[in-house]
Amino acid sequence: MAEATNIMATALLSAQSAQSVPSAQSVPSAQSVADADADADPVGGFVRSTARPTPEIAAAVAAQLEMVLGAARPGGLCGVSSEQALQVVEAAEALKAWVDAISIDATAVMVTEFEADFEHLEPEAPSAWQRRRFLRSCRSAAAREIQVATGLAITQCQRRVWFTACEPQRVAPIRQLLRLGRVPLARAMTLAQATAHLDAYTASVIATRVLRPVTGPDGEPLPEMAPLSQATFTTRLHRQLVLHNGLVGEAKRTHEEAVKARRVTSEPHRDGTGALVITGDGPRITAAACRVEKIARRLRKNGDERTLDQLRADVATDLLMGGWIPDDPTFTALGRPPVATVQLIVTLPTLLGLDHGIALIPGWGCVSSAQAQDLALQLGSIWKRIVTDPITGRAIEATAGTYKVPAGMAEQIRARDGTCRAPGCEIPTERCDLDHSQEWSTTPDDTGGPTGGPTAETNLAAVHRGHHNLKTSGFWDSDQSPQGALAWTTATGRAFTTYPYVYDHPDNLPIRTSNLEAHLGRRLAPLINPDIPLPGHLSIFDHIDWTQALAPALPQQPQHTWETAQANQKQRPAMIASRDPGPPPF
Prior knowledge:
Oligomer: single chain
Structural class: mainly alpha
Largest sheet: 3 strands, antiparallel
Strand order of the largest sheet: 11-12-13
Helix content: 40-55%
């Protein structure tokens, strides 16, 4: 096991390649890292370091790997103390950072290879704008590749690709600590993004200041300090940003960035309700909330029996669903007001109450059978039948002879697919393009037949714009079978297949269990595993009277003075040596 662990450690650190090794209580400075990277091999804006790992780092990685692998063996944690278990937790967290550092380096290699392999997609003698667009397309393809292969959120994948593309000097201290297992990836990317508006040298110095241990006036690390906490990290980062932007400048910058990122998001709740979150400029949000408040209070004053909270929610929802500004030029240019609609997909047995299945609102989530019945039976509801294959449970198809997809066929394809047909994508078909899997063309081939695919449901699929652009740009490709299965080939040659939505899937029916078993299970769960009280909340021990009764019998702590503190510091090494159980027994 030790030999195999050493091999793994060497391979791990060979991929990481640390140029200089900071001590356990130091962070590499920006200048030292810049000097260390001077001999690196720059490729496509990224840096591939070629230095071999030092024996100290290789030994540290080997020790961490040996500890975690020993704990992973059957019974590996049997008989260990709490201190030894904590050591395993620390080693596992360090290994996470090491592995993330390898992932970042591998991402950089993938993006560089994309820029070389797909160079034929770039125009000849491209302008600066065309060059940026090409690089953006390559990095977008890399992010989508990681998303499909790992299942991570696309925003996480995009942040990883962006982090690898940062200038070496900007992120060198961060990536050095990531290689050493002393900073998690989430914190590393947060620091890089927070300083992205600054020059590379200033950003690297801020990273050094934020991540190094607490030091005294002489600049030396203070002994026995705890590792950098999230609260200390946030405080340090804010201090440095204010120092380099000014309090007013930093507030203005963050406000402008937040306003640019304004959006509306909807979030389904598991109890059948949902939340609509509007983010925007503070005064506008306040004015909108004030108007909702005035309308709600006026309704309440006129005798409405709903509570103020209920009225606020109903008024805001009704205004968004039916409100319109007829005299506003922006709204006038849009023509007739759009109708607020919701698409509901539900099986006939659920609609008739013959089973307790669920209904699907594409792009939102599932609702209960009772909510589905209420929606379907409301005045103005329009029912549309979807004919499904009795064996596969999927919708049935048709064909047209033009490039433009007829309205009926488009509706049928969107009903068949349910969501975007790209791997892992859940964007509803109403927000997707209808893509010809085999490109449509009227140009005949040598035999007089068409060179492209037909406008038919067997050659059309709902694909959202991000994945559609990957296919149009040549990074991805797709091929559809007569049964509707869509075979995708990604930029790295990976093959994935997606299938039409199955309406009669057995997972859409509730699990059959007795009411007694379900009731007792829900009652026992919080007793077996009670929640941990949050900071500032009452603990279970606050309500136990015997803790107060035993308090006088407990030995009283001496009053803390400067003399007692000095005495404690002198006794501390002996106390630690007596309590140290040593490394875990594996």
